[in-house]
Amino acid sequence: MNEPLPNISQLDSQGKELSFVTVIGRDQKGIVARVTSLIFKHGLNIEDIAQKVMQGHFVMIMLVDFKDSKSDLEDVKADLGRVATEMNLQIQIQHEDLFKKINRV
Amino acid sequence: MTISVEEVFETARMTLFQHFDIRTVTLGINLKDCIHSDFPRFLDNVYNRIKPAAQSLVREAKRLEVLYGVPIVNKRISVTPVSLIMETHAEGEKFLAMAKMLDRAAAEGGVDFLGGFGALVQKGATRSDSALIEALPEVLSSTGRVCSFLNVGSNVAGMNLDAVIALGPMLKRTAELSGNGIGCAKFVVFVNAPEDNPFMAGAFHGVGEPDYSVNIGISGPGVVRDIVAANRDCDLTQLSEIVKRTTFKITRAGELVGRELAKRLKVPFGIVDISLASTTAQGDSVAGIIEAMGIERVGAHGSTLAVALLMDAVKKGGAMASGNVGGLSGTFIPVSEDERMIAAVQEGALGLDKLEALTSVCSVGMDMFAVPGDTPAGVVSAIIADELAIGVVNNKTTAVRIILAPGCKPGDIIDYGGLLGRVPVMQVNRYSAENFIRRGGRLPSPVTSMRN
């Protein structure tokens, strides 16, 4: 069965500063709430969001836009790191170029 | 353009679970225009060139780590071979003074290592080259970050055996002066040394390079190991294909970081060298890839074929991914930095003979292995000469980084901690090549018109 993979986004980054937030770990209450409220706090816009269980991991992926954010990437990263520690999750934030470059020729 | 959740997950997994990293970013710096007849002024020129460049490199590299979420493990500087710029100051004490100043500039600039304290002597040594070699034991044992190389041969020039003879006593002295032999880990001897190698200890900024260049060394044995382990039943053609595809992705990531870094530093982008290189972290092992292919312990019969397959697949994947792939692409097989290599030595699966054989198909050579400190100088030179002959005759880069472990016998372990890891001391052949090696002279360059 060739079920099409869910798309995270039709990447069209004109004028946007897009990064992927990847959350991996055990499914538990409050992951979406904690992460999205932090994204909101820093003034980032969530462009797209998807979640799935893959290879035994709960995976949530968000595409966020930094365009209107006043926060430094370092600060966002540090806050996400705190949530990751508290909830025993792996959270990464990575610029969209990395995914474009790796996955598209 | 559409990106799927699966692809995002796969990319994020590379850094989260499979130890994918940019192993090293190396900024090459030309120092030829710093030369001055007044030695203190010359030192100042070099210091003022290196320190700010190092600071910018470290600052921008750290920013890119955050932006892309890919760790950049080492930030390094390589410089014009020091023997070249010291031609008018060819005295041992001045070499030591230069080394100490380079060490200080590197430390204050915040880089991990500085390479290029070396010479190219494939056909013969100048006065400056000889003074540098004489100063090496003291330089390597009294500085922390300065790395040294010598190129003693090429497939065009043959091999300078006189230089190889000098290395036996030089390395023994270095090991003694640095107590536990650690000084030896900062020195590598090459044939066919590439001018744009981003990896220490052999990095230097060649004379064919521009004023600056950024070279990237990327790794990811963990990523390759996982994909090989997940494909236990495929044949060798399919296995090569899988490794190629994986390497392609890794190389693309490395090139992205390299080009962005070069842009931010306003210097030309040099090469991306995709060479799988182990670290002491669990699972980040090249020998682990070989074992995942189906070799019970690296060193067993079949290992050479496995390394050959891996090398070729990595080069092919890399070549497709970037037009600037470096000459050392493939895989390193250091002993001390790879938990599975260490285990193979300790369990008797891997000896010096097989290690040498593996290097005929790996990217560089015999790396980070230890022999007893009382090994005669002639035998040390013979180990080096054997390995380098493979490179001269087969038109490839080979190198030796050998540690003479003071007071140790085969089976002992020296633990350097961190990046350099644990080194099991290996048995050397007890018969001597003294009478052959001490003939000296130059190994004639091989005839290449009759290759077969």
Describe the structure.
- The complex is a heterodimer of chains A (105) and B (452).
- Chain A has 105 residues and is α+β, with helices and mostly antiparallel strands.
- Chain A has helices at 31-41, 73-87, 96-103, and strands at 7-10, 18-25, 45-54, 57-65, 90-95.
- In chain A, a hairpin with a 2-residue loop joins strand 3 and strand 4.
- The mean pLDDT of chain A is 88.
- Chain B has 452 residues and is α/β, with parallel strands linked by helices.
- Chain B contains 14 helices and 17 strands.
- Chain B has helices spanning 5-16, 39-68, 82-85, 92-109, 127-142, 161-177, 221-229, 236-265, 286-292, 303-321, 339-346, 352-358, 377-394, 434-437, and strands spanning 2-4, 22-29, 72-79, 113-115, 119-120, 146-151, 153-154, 158-160, 187-191, 212-218, 269-276, 330-331, 366-372, 398-405, 413-415, 422-424, 442-443.
- In chain B, strands 2, 3, 4, 5, 6, 9, 10, 11, 12, 13 and 14 form an 11-stranded mixed sheet that branches. Chain B has a 3-stranded antiparallel sheet with strand order 7-8-17. In chain B, strands 15-16 form a two-stranded antiparallel ribbon.
- In chain B, a hairpin with a 3-residue loop joins strand 7 and strand 8.
- Classes of the chains: A alpha+beta (105), B alpha/beta (452).
- The interface between A and B is medium-sized, with 33 and 24 residues.
